[in-house]
Write a structure and sequence with these properties.
- The chain is of the alpha+beta class.
- It has one domain: Hypothetical protein (Metal Transport, Frataxin, Chain A, 2-Layer Sandwich), CATH 3.30.920.
- 37% of the residues lie in helices and 19% in strands.
- It contains three helices and three strands.
- A hairpin with a 5-residue loop joins β2 and β3.
Length: 83
């Protein structure tokens, strides 16, 4: 099982230790581009569907907040990338 497969299986359970680098890796694998916004704001835009996830990069900890994981799961489920 590849790293992306493990992340795809793990994310829907909304883990409390999902990291920023794991999210970036997964979003890029699903064809999203990441654009920097002001400050720590980041926008993931899917190239084909134009779906957008706006999220703040967590700092100093690199672990995502529960609402950030929930927002990512909701978008990826709605767009059909995960179940």
């Amino acid at each position: 099982m590849s790293k992306h497969d493990r992340l795809i299986r793990r994310l829907p359970s909304k883990p409390k230790d999902f990291t920023w680098s794991e999210l970036v890796s997964l979003m890029l694998a699903f064809g999203f581009d990441m654009e920097k916004s002001s400050g720590s704001g980041r926008k993931f835009i899917q190239k084909e569907t134009e779906a957008v996830l706006f999220i703040h990069e967590p700092h100093p900890s690199k672990v995502l907040k529960p609402y950030q994981v929930r927002d990512a799961v909701t978008l990826l489920e709605r767009e059909g990338f995960i179940k």
